[in-house]
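Severity: low
Component: inverse-folding endpoint
Summary: output formatting inconsistent between runs
Steps to reproduce: submit the following structure tokens with default settings.
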């Protein structure tokens, strides 16, 4: 027997939150396949996912990893939510991404990497902010060392270890521009044996977020994914999304990257609509962002919507970075939207389903 932590996305508006509950199950030492784990119900009226008179929702296991917070043999179980009739729940954005993949995106061999920024909050302000007034202005904090400028490192480090022990595609971490703000990346690491596809990587990011909240709990702080945790001259938190496909990685990949830029320029509003809540506070044109009402693509330009990294320009192939998604964006929606635009998949025509936040 071992402990299984069933994890799902709730029905909170405008930003879905993580929920989890634990079940003691007969498990062997081997990591089970999701399909071998039982379906489990929960009270959807307590999570914004059902009405009280018909409140049963279901948890359908879709991904399993070792639980690095408990004992060897215990597991984390990421779930999709089904409604009382066993159909996919209307808020199940993972199912939306599966639909886009099935409508043709899967054939394009897309890889993705997310840069998740977050702020560590205690007593209503980020770590490193004094209880009166403000810390010295931004400048020394990004990738900093020293206890006068790096605040909360122990949490970022513990989180890294947990992600690695859970087998996630953890890429790296750094202190960010605002005091108490950090980033970690999840996704493509150049390893042929890893699945850096859209679905698997987005699953990994959700589990990494779950682990981040649990580590922060231990330390009595909140890991905030708010787009603009502190108003004023302080960087917001984003979720830069790095994207490539067979076409962009081919020897003449730059042509495919430029084509993607043109398609993305036309679909700007549709992307902004699913790139997170409060995005207008972050995408101001200041603080290394492009204004929300503008679309700009550029090589190595951190004020662009889409940036082509310098080494990609040099090689003439590779990936591009979408700098617009906010820290609180849903990686399933971001991945689905990018794939639909770049691969010219009309989701509504293909499936009768709209891609909405
Ligand atoms: P930045 O310079 O923007 O801060 P980071 O070093 O934080 O970039 O993150 C780089 C990201 O790019 C990682 O998430 C990684 O997974 C992703 N990445 C690298 N190569 C590719 C690729 N070929 N396709 C998709 N994502 C990629
Ligand atoms: Mn980064
Ligand atoms: Mn960053
Ligand atoms: Mn970036």
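Observed output (run 2 of 3):
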């Amino acid at each position: 027997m071992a402990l299984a932590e069933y994890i799902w996305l709730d029905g909170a508006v405008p930003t879905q939150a993580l929920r989890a509950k634990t079940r003691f199950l007969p498990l062997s030492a081997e990591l089970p396949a999701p399909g071998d784990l039982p379906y489990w119900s929960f009270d959807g009226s307590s999570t914004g996912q059902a009405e009280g008179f018909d409140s049963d929702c279901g948890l359908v296991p879709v991904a399993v990893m070792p639980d690095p917070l408990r004992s060897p043999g215990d597991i984390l179980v990421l779930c999709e939510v089904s409604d009382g009739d066993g159909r996919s729940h209307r808020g199940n954005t993972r199912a939306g991404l599966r639909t886009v993949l099935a409508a043709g995106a899967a054939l394009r061999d897309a890889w993705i990497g997310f840069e998740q920024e977050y702020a560590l909050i205690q007593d209503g302000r980020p770590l490193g902010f004094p209880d009166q007034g403000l810390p010295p202005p931004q400048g020394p904090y990004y990738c900093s060392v020293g206890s006068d400028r790096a605040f909360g490192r122990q949490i970022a480090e513990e989180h890294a270890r947990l992600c690695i022990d859970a087998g996630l595609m953890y890429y790296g971490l750094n202190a960010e521009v605002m005091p108490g703000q950090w980033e970690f990346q999840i996704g493509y690491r150049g390893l042929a044996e890893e699945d850096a596809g859209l679905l698997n990587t987005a699953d990994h990011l959700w589990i990494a977020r779950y682990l981040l909240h649990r580590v922060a709990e231990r330390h009595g702080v909140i890991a905030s994914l708010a787009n603009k945790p502190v108003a004023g001259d302080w960087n917001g938190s984003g979720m830069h999304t790095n994207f490539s496909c067979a076409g962009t990685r081919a020897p003449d990949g730059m042509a495919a990257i430029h084509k993607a830029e043109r398609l993305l320029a036309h679909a700007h509003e549709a992307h902004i609509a699913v790139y997170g809540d409060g995005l207008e506070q972050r995408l101001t044109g200041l603080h290394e962002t492009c204004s929300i009402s503008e679309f700009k693509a550029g090589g190595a330009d951190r004020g662009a919507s889409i940036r082509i990294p310098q080494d990609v320009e040099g090689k003439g192939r590779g990936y591009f970075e979408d700098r617009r998604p906010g820290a609180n964006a849903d990686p399933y929606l971001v991945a689905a939207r990018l794939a639909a635009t770049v691969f010219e998949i009309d989701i509504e025509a293909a499936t009768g389903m709209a891609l909405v936040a």
